[in-house]
Amino acid sequence: MYRFALFSLSVTSSLLLAQPFTQEEAVQHGSAVSAALVQRLSTELKGQMELGGPMAALRFCSLYALSLTDHVAKDSNATLKRVSLHNRNPVNAPTADEKKLLEKWEAMQHANQPLPGYETKRLENGDYHFYKPILITNEACLKCHGEIAAGSPLAKAIKAIYPDDKATGYKMGNLRGMIVVTLPNRP
Fold it and tell me: How much is the pTM?
């Protein structure tokens, strides 16, 4: 009985202390989670580029990018994904709401308007979505996402791994997609 009383007190205390995220907390947590993902992916891709160039980076992305994203999400008690209107992997296709936001950002970019650093949306259940634009800011990104010579070994490898690839033709500064962090009502 004593154990049960302590357990009940612990659960009750936790429930009383658990408050929904404020927008400021959602921005702080979403920023930290998206930065962690960018850091992990950038570090891994830089290493792959140094080891074997774009082919090694492509191989890494096709095998490990999704699981690495899931690992960062698990470590942060959030749901995490990368989406794009011009996705390479169909898994990275946006939902209808995400598509609207990406289209808005693309229109802003075409009108030479600065993109926001992030946007947030509170859901009816109290969860927050944190949206962070992904921009092409590194020349190395263009090795796999820029102009790829038709018929080149890299173009053939991309086509073999991603038959419906839409993720080439980018230039420096282009909107590549966005990171979506879903923060539960309370972590």
Answer: 0.86
